[in-house]
Amino acid sequence: MAKRILTALVGAAVMGIGTQAASGATLDDVKAKGFVQCGVNTGLAGFAAPDASGNWSGFDVDYCKAIAAAIFADGSKVKYTPTSAKERFPALQSGEVDVLARNTTWTINRDTALGFNFRPVNYYDGQGFMVRKSLNVKSALELSGAAVCVQTGTTTELNLADYFKSNNLQYNPVVFEKLEEVNAAYDAGRCDVYTTDQSGLYSLRLTLSKPDDHMILPEIISKEPLGPAVRQGDDQWFDIVSWTHYALIQAEEFGITQANVEEMKKSTNPDVQRFLGVEADTKIGTDLGLTNEWAVNVIKAVGNYGEVFDRNIGAGSPLKIERGLNALWNKGGIQYAPPVR
Amino acid sequence: MAIGVTTTPEKSKPSGSIINDPQVRGIFYQVITVVLLGAFVYWVADNTIENLKRANIASGYGFLNGRAGFDVGQSLIAYTSDSTYQRALVVGLLNTLLVAVCGIFTATIIGFAVGIGRLSHNWLIAKLSLAYVEIFRNIPPLLVIFFWYSGVLAILPQPRESAALPFNMFLNNRGLAFPKPIFGDGSLYTVLALVLAIVASFLLARYARKKQEATGQRFPVLWSSVGLIIGLPLLVFLATGSPITFDVPVAGKFNLTGGSVIGPEFLSLFLALSFYTAAFIAEIVRAGIRGVSKGQTEAAHALGVRPGLTTRLVVVPQALRIIIPPLTSQYLNLTKNSSLAVAIGYADLVAVGGTILNQTGQSIEIVTIWIIVYLSLSLTTSLFMNWFNARMALVER
User: Fold this and answer.
1) Which of A298, B211, B365, B386 is deepest in the core (most CB within 10 A)?
2) Within-domain flag for A72
3) Is ipTM beyond 0.90?
4) What is the 3-state secondary structure (H, E, C) of chain A?
5) CB-CB under 8 Å, A18 with B358
6) For chain A, what is the domain count?
7) What is the pLDDT along chain B (397 residues), one digit of tens a residue?
8) Are residue B235 and residue B278 in the same domain, yes or no?
9) Residues of chain B positioned with their CB less than 8 A from the CB of A86
10) Nearest residue on chain B to A135, judged by CA atoms?
11) Is the pLDDT of residue A70 over 90?
12) Residues in B 12-71 with any Cβ partner in A closer than 8 A
């Protein structure tokens, strides 16, 4: 008992004294304060990064905007909390943020012991390695003896240890808490190898002083399903966050874009009518706790999944990441939405 | 007001009212404070437990026995990703202790040198010392650490262009690589000889002091000790057939392999903490020396004691009494500032704990461990310094 009280005492400092934000009915809280508090990365080009005037943009940021649009019909009603890999989970646990859209890998430990809920995977990723071309390394199996830069508190850090151990390779981990610190150390030549999710490597390579001097090795050593996370115990909020993603996927499948969404409301296709909330007596939106226009609002704010992808990290961005696994299920990928019915 | 009854004062009071009795009032206010504090603590504890339960977060310290799964760059003890979280924390703790002890040692030396330098009659030395103190004292420690880290990384060569130093040591931006001694059969005798030589030197010093007190004759302690400490182990080493060999670092594919390496993270943190804290220690030393009355020096000079001996035998012992208490605070500050290591990736207790916190999500437990460990470290340092202070205190005869 003494141990428990001590634990609890310290908890006051960590959890914020007597916070009630961790309770249910996140939707009511969000509506009452008038914005969604969204936990994002501190700065990962293409996923979440502020520009010179402090406006956030990126793939994860668009998810924050989409959720805000679903609730308020206005994608700008978001406040961003930049979190390091280490800060992100306490931020969500304590109720400091309503949703964590921060390229976070869905694992069973985070889903259970940490008290979070994950469902949709908005980006299927895998861990890779980046090295200097001058090292003449062609495969990750040639990396024995290398110094490896990695961000602490990530699944990356654990996969790295497992991969090198199972392949009997030696390495020297150089560990930092913040992404910017890892970048600076790699750029300064403190380590030979940089490892993180491949999407991250593409994004980070752009920020190095000489991007063309670096190459990404072909090996992918892990499954990294990234997606938004919410606290356990509030199913309604979990549904809203999940279905915002499914709405983006569904919109791409139907060919509904930011530009033609008003047009599509006149569609005679009953599936599209139901999805866009124009079907008579539909209750899909209100059952979610939102308005029947929710899907329309989401698409108006950020476009469909394909548009979000292209604009931030795909062909229309400097990152030029292929759709790969993240193409729709009927186009060779595994992005799939349950039926809206 | 049950308290009022138990503390009914026996002394006579002209007013006769309990309410106006200062003793009763004092106790009353103290009881109120304790009750309020207790209620506050209970409220915080209850709230936290409730919130943890609601958030479905498992709590307790059982997780410490789990497999860590991550590697640590710098470790003083054997550690792999298969070790437990507990062992990882010990690795972090040892790294914290290492940098704190090394930092305290160096900071004290630099601090004393600069502090005495500020009192020098030599204009250049005094002004240089002044500049040193003012620069380092007025920069946040984190910036000093960043300065050294980026400085160290930027100036040192890449591994393939390592700078060769004497004794097969190499310096590059992965750190300082030096030959690692490998202790073969019979090397134990050499180590024993070294220990024996050190003990003998101590005894010799005591003997010399006794002899000087008794007869006034002086014995060359320094040189005979040096001879003893170097000569004896060397003799034994050669006699047992040179059992200690060295693992010399050689160029590998990515970096030097073999030997031991002191990483740039440790180097820069150690240098930053030493230089930063030394600025404060210098001021404490200066204040301590200034605090010794000028009459003491003059009296010593009048007795014909030479300036060097005056400083050593008259000024410093008295100055130490003023210096030690604030010096303790600086040692504590240095130990606590070592937690800034997290910014440059040195695997200290906070960095390793942070990783565990993130991998397991047990934030409250880890924060408790941090608090308890730093509290224990600081209290231990305080205890030691208080003991030292008591020894140094003025003995009235």
Assistant:
1) A298
2) yes
3) no
4) CHHHHHHHHHHHHHHCCCCCCCCCCHHHHHHHHCCEEEEEECCECCCEEECCCCCEECHHHHHHHHHHHHHHCCCCCEEEEEECCCCHHHHHHCCCCCEECCCCECCHHHHCCCCEEECCCCEEECEEEEEEHHHCCCCHHHCCCEEEEEECCCHHHHHHHHHHHHCCCCEEEEEECCHHHHHHHHHCCCCCEEEEEHHHHHHHHHHCCCHHHEEECCCCCCCEEECCEEECCCHHHHHHHHHHHHHHHHHHHHCCCCCCHHHHCCCCCHHHHHHCCCCCCCCHHHHCCCCCCHHHHHHHHHCCHHHHHHHHCCCCCCCCCCCHHHCEHHHCCCECCCCCC
5) no
6) 2
7) 444 445 455 555 555 677 788 888 889 999 999 999 999 999 988 888 887 777 666 677 888 888 888 888 888 888 888 889 999 999 999 999 999 999 999 999 999 999 989 988 899 999 999 999 999 999 999 998 988 888 777 778 887 777 778 777 888 888 888 887 777 777 788 888 888 888 988 888 888 888 888 887 777 778 888 888 888 888 888 877 777 777 777 777 777 777 778 888 898 899 999 999 999 999 999 999 999 988 998 999 999 998 888 888 888 888 988 898 899 999 999 999 999 988 888 889 999 998 888 888 788 889 999 999 999 999 998 899 888 888 877 766 6
8) no
9) 354-355, 357-358
10) B254
11) yes
12) 41, 43-49, 51-52, 54-59, 61, 69-71
Q: How many domains does chain B have?
A: 3
Residues B283 and B332 in one domain: yes
Say whether A8 and B255 touch across the interface (CB within 8 A).
no
Instruction: State which residue of chain A sits closest to B151, comparing Cα positions.
Output: A188
In angstroms, what separates the C-alpha of A67 from chain B's closest C-alpha? 22
Q: At which of B54, B69, B96 does a domain end?
A: B54
**A272 is a domain residue:** yes
B48, B153, B371 ranked by CB distance to A190: nearest: B153
The domain spanning residue A237 has which CATH number? 3.40.190.10
Chain A hits for B71, Cβ within 8 Å = 160-161, 164, 171, 173
